[in-house]
Fold this protein.
Amino acid sequence: MIKVGIVGGTGYTGVELLRLLAQHPQVELRCITSRGEAGVAVADMFHSLRKRLSLSFVDPRSAPLDECDLVFFATPNGIAMSQTQALLDAGVRVIDLAADFRIKDIAEWEKWYGMKHAAPALVAEAVYGLPEVNREKIRQARLIANPGCYPTSVQLGFLPLVEAGLIETDHLIADVKSGVSGAGRKAELSSLFCEAGDNFKAYGVPGHRHQPEIRQGLSLVAGKPVGLTFVPHLTPMIRGIHATLYARIAREADFQAVYESRYQSEPFVDVLPFASHPDTRSVRSANLCRIAVHRPHGGDTLVILSVIDNLVKGAAGQAVQNMNIMFGFEECAGLTQIPVLP
Amino acid sequence: MIKVGIVGGTGYTGVELLRLLAQHPQVELRCITSRGEAGVAVADMFHSLRKRLSLSFVDPRSAPLDECDLVFFATPNGIAMSQTQALLDAGVRVIDLAADFRIKDIAEWEKWYGMKHAAPALVAEAVYGLPEVNREKIRQARLIANPGCYPTSVQLGFLPLVEAGLIETDHLIADVKSGVSGAGRKAELSSLFCEAGDNFKAYGVPGHRHQPEIRQGLSLVAGKPVGLTFVPHLTPMIRGIHATLYARIAREADFQAVYESRYQSEPFVDVLPFASHPDTRSVRSANLCRIAVHRPHGGDTLVILSVIDNLVKGAAGQAVQNMNIMFGFEECAGLTQIPVLP
Amino acid sequence: MIKVGIVGGTGYTGVELLRLLAQHPQVELRCITSRGEAGVAVADMFHSLRKRLSLSFVDPRSAPLDECDLVFFATPNGIAMSQTQALLDAGVRVIDLAADFRIKDIAEWEKWYGMKHAAPALVAEAVYGLPEVNREKIRQARLIANPGCYPTSVQLGFLPLVEAGLIETDHLIADVKSGVSGAGRKAELSSLFCEAGDNFKAYGVPGHRHQPEIRQGLSLVAGKPVGLTFVPHLTPMIRGIHATLYARIAREADFQAVYESRYQSEPFVDVLPFASHPDTRSVRSANLCRIAVHRPHGGDTLVILSVIDNLVKGAAGQAVQNMNIMFGFEECAGLTQIPVLP
Amino acid sequence: MIKVGIVGGTGYTGVELLRLLAQHPQVELRCITSRGEAGVAVADMFHSLRKRLSLSFVDPRSAPLDECDLVFFATPNGIAMSQTQALLDAGVRVIDLAADFRIKDIAEWEKWYGMKHAAPALVAEAVYGLPEVNREKIRQARLIANPGCYPTSVQLGFLPLVEAGLIETDHLIADVKSGVSGAGRKAELSSLFCEAGDNFKAYGVPGHRHQPEIRQGLSLVAGKPVGLTFVPHLTPMIRGIHATLYARIAREADFQAVYESRYQSEPFVDVLPFASHPDTRSVRSANLCRIAVHRPHGGDTLVILSVIDNLVKGAAGQAVQNMNIMFGFEECAGLTQIPVLP
């Protein structure tokens, strides 16, 4: 049983983290902070948690975060970087669900996130929390940079091919579609039901923050810089990411076997039979990535389909998975819910 | 640990039952039948169950149903009534999620369901599986008629007022809105995305099968026949029922206190603070009914709002709750999932 | 050909008004004002208007509104009441799509709208723009209070019964469901796709501003105060209102014939065959109200179903209809679009 | 004024064609056939057409099709090919909205459509009805093969680049997302609200009928066979297609200028400013294709975004546009509706 605190937690990532942690057998939720909602019972804001969570939001200044074993940051970008060092000094481990520690190149980070980084040294220390790549490092880590939702779906999709050197990596294409919850629980015009509903659009095509994060991850695996065209889209559903990935074959192989072998012992990656079509609802509310491999018309282009729930394997679920690894719990503890379908 | 069989199970009620039972600590799923899908792995039809359920559908004729302790019927109406007696004779208990045993008046049933009833004697024996009313009878029952989705939301909403004799019961009004999954997983034009989406309509206003079921339940409680105008509507969401109930006050009382007191020990009914507005997503995927009491402008009309997930408290979840009661399990066993929001 | 100005116009009512007016054969759009968007081309904000509308938003202070024959206010409540007198003095006629002039009882208005009324005299002069009731007065009016969306659907639904004295009017019930565009194009949490989507809820049950507006209209017709329980709901669709109305019969009649006769010469009210179920999409994007009459089980309660597109017959379309009447155009001019289905 | 008949017409393409033709100033709708619905008033099936269309469906055998100037086939594939010759012989011109005459290579067609072609000679004669490519041929044609919805969006998107020889055409990628109405008004499980709603998936990745159609069109323009990876997806909205197109640059140019120049006199293609993000709703219910050109990070890959309403520019609207050209009407006649937004 560990003591856990949450900083932030009024957003969708926060309420999802609460849902998972409230059902986790080895977690005692100690506190959750919110500047704006201090004093409000969490269950009054999120009725789904009525009778299941008795915590109220507390002001960050009075929260006993340093008494926790672990603190999750479910905050906007730029918060965790200024508070993490003090927690680490107090012996508290940290998982940041925002982007503060994801990109190793500080200049690159500052360009995309539009602010000066407050803790470059911690960026160097932070472990990128993609268990399928970094499980051993996560086990030892004090500080985890929890991956972004798009980067999780795209990296898990490309990983086996890049690791095995089977594709040309200078012109990868990731055409990715996200549900609207990826935009967060913020009062913004573009996330309104009447703007995002019955509508489909791309956004951020000239440049999106997740592009350098994906490139960094795949380049590390490839052992050289990869080229990536990344196009995110908004699709009128609440949860779910569907990545459609394109790559030209560099070397022949039994591609399906490559995927099955790479992920055979991964508890949260499911490789479907060759030429399947995973739908996002098949992972809804669960910590899962389902992947299918295609080679249309037997040509020289592979198409990989990769689906996750952006709030679970793309955020809160992966954070809990990282916690489980860090604290030596069973990796699946608290993460065994079956997807909700329909 | 009990052995459980399912007859039917390719519909939404079926897959939801599978989701709940696959996670239930005291259930061993023995078999699931389907005439049309015999031989197909359940997880190939419902990808959400991949790696969680290894059963395949079997032909009803070769299914070892009589070796089970309990059989659920998740079939169209008219199937359970012809197969239940044999199972009971073999010592198997039965929960029917369809309507075969819900209405005691055989003539009334035959009128609404358009067929001759095959087992009137069993109708007399069957216990109506609304635990909040019949918990003790359920404990002893061999055969449960699991309530309909609309009837669950409406009866739980009106119950405290009718029991206490606080309202005029000759002109009850139930204006109820259902998600599309209530229509089942059937290839019908009216359930198409492009017919039911971005659209709202009433249906069955001249007469709907759930009206006599609700009337029967409330009349029993009232001790006299009640009058009920019941208008169901289709709303463009997948899961959820929202009942808006209207009744004129017959006798003054602290209505909020009446509800809180009536349901204080019920694990799956949650009375919100006075004048709240429950939303259907606050119970999505969970076995819960949330209720709010209103008295607009302090007038002589009460408005009760009652929400459930039609597939859970309105079908599969309530069936599992009934199972738990019948077999002496903890009533909440396998039913503790927190609603998925957003 | 008349010269028309619009004050406001960055909301959903505004863009709908633009869509209709840009296609109207007798309207020359002169200017559209917006404090926040001055200088922005309207078609850059609403791509649907690209190549169809070359106007840019102008600052209200520099807009040549007094050169117009007619000015529409598509503003938040409280704007029109302070600007209308000057326009009228300049010989400009005014249609207010907000609520400033809808309620004759100033104290009642101030209670519901939470501000002091700036122009009580104009309230007295304003004609309530429901053509099916006030066509002749509209023809002569300088100032029109365009009805609310809920009030349009509910009044048109009850009107024939109340006028003919066929129902008990002390306990009318209006259970009404609205698409999310009724909440406007405002960055509010409750209107987010992930809050309003796949969800259903009532709101404002203790009291809603449209209740007194409806009561005023029906009381005028009834010749005495009516009693009304009004419960609005939010349904996950973009456009559309579905009113389900309940009334007890006071006097027998051929109710279907009453409706058909009442609306036979109304161009924008369509009475369906007895016991039909109109769906909201059957009026989507069109200036239409479709109504169906039900008498469930031949009892003493009538159920009336009434559907409109909240942005058209519930707002912009009705405003154009009022304009047509005021200026002696054909009442259907610019309003003949066939509903978009699916 | 021409006399027009429709064969089929109970599907979404059919009702959309009826919506457009019923408002067309030069069309007299003479008859509409349906084997299954003969005798039913069209407006009873589609309430949106009440009071706007008085036709009833007639049996195909008794329909006066040969008295028409033009017959539209809005039928499943395989119908038009067996009835067209007789109509042509009777002097009737034909526009087929299905696929019977789209692919010139008969063997290829038979492979994808799974049947023997009944009229190969007519395939040779038929003009592919993409006005932006074949306007002059359409003017002279007796028989038009109206393009598929995906092919329209993809061809219009790639066309300027392929014509000008600016991209490598051996590895084109078209990642395309369609609303559910593209699947037609058929009672199929996969099109149910609860299957397609709140879900996203690819389909037909191993091979889709529209791939050879697109390849044929682009190859003709390129003057050599092009290579194309085509991945269609189903997105939870009713109308709309969003094509995201990827191509590597072969030769530098001012790509934005190339698009603007190519489409400057096209009434139904709108090139947005460089690096824009068109959303599908900006063309909802209108005969429009909006296109945006991107060059992410100034690299060697172009990303073209192309949106249409699949039922209008992707089907019925384009058919009417073809009709206008064939009969010398103004090309925009009956097609000037402004998109419905929101």
Observations:
- Residues 2-125 of chain B form a domain with the Rossmann fold fold (CATH 3.40.50.720).
- The CA atoms of residues 286 and 336 of chain B lie 8 Å apart.
- Chain B has two domains: 2-125, 150-310.
- The mean pLDDT of chain B is 97.
